Amino acid sequence: MRFTKGHGTGNDFVILPDLDGALDLTPERVAALCDRRRGIGADGVLRVVRSAAATDAPEGPEFFMDYRNSDGSLAEMCGNGARVFVRYLLEQGLAGGSKLEFGSRAGVITAVADGDEIAVAMRRPAIVGQSSAMLGALQLAGQAVDIGNPHLVCRVPDVDIVDLRDAPRFDAAFFPAGVNVEVISGDASLTRMRVYERGSGETLSCGTGACAVAAVVLGGADGTVPVEVPGGRLTITIEPDRCWLAGPAVLVAHGDVLI
Ligand SMILES: N[C@@H](CCC[C@H](N)C(=O)O)C(=O)O
């Protein structure tokens, strides 16, 4: 099976071309591919499939991004994955031009490529309430944000001192499908963020997380926020009816996988 490896600000993915939807991509296979010692290693898998061959693709675009977390679970959306997916479509000649659309479980995504940067427009993040999470013995209050997938954004004095090795405990009644937990410091001129992703653990970056963070930092208003993550920098622009996530997206290898 052919694969490509890519990343967006260090949030890394195994990309599997499966244009006709023939692949049996079980959760176990995804977890094996993402295993950093016994597999290729990644935060998630991006299956590239024609919308006509996908069961959950929205009407319209030719291609569908089937995203899976590294534990094999499905997620509604992956912002960095979307940017890397676009880089793959462009580099493989499956799409052309600087503006394109593709399908995701969160609906149709618009993308714009500009040199090293790829920006994707997702739905506008909605602040949906308050909740809290326990990180070890540390209890953090936060704001819950929905951008297709669920996030809890918690302000801390210094993101570097938070221990994200273990999964945060959260209110399962509030987040019945689980949650991605972001810790942030700074302000709208530059926000620092670390994240523990549902289904993947701590990652170097999370695009939808950065959008959720921007919504909280801007207090629900429109605007642009640079978000610094351990893997680099993302720029988030919230408009009245959508949210742009911009940053680098890179392919690093092509190969054959035997597992
Ligand atoms: N890394 C992603 C988010 C991937 C999905 C997330 N772990 C979830 O389960 O919701 C991003 O860049 O947005």
From TrEMBL:
GO terms for biological process: lysine biosynthetic process via diaminopimelate. Keywords: Amino-acid biosynthesis, Cytoplasm, Isomerase, Lysine biosynthesis. The keyword Cell inner membrane does not apply. It catalyses: (2S,6S)-2,6-diaminopimelate = meso-2,6-diaminopimelate. Its main location: cytoplasm. GO terms for cellular component: cytosol. Substrate binds at residues 11, 69, 79-80, 149, 180, 197-198, 207-208. The record marks 151, 197 as: Could be important to modulate the pK values of the two catalytic cysteine residues. Homodimer. This is Diaminopimelate epimerase. It comes from Virgisporangium aliadipatigenens. The lineage of its organism: Bacteria, Bacillati, Actinomycetota, Actinomycetes, Micromonosporales.
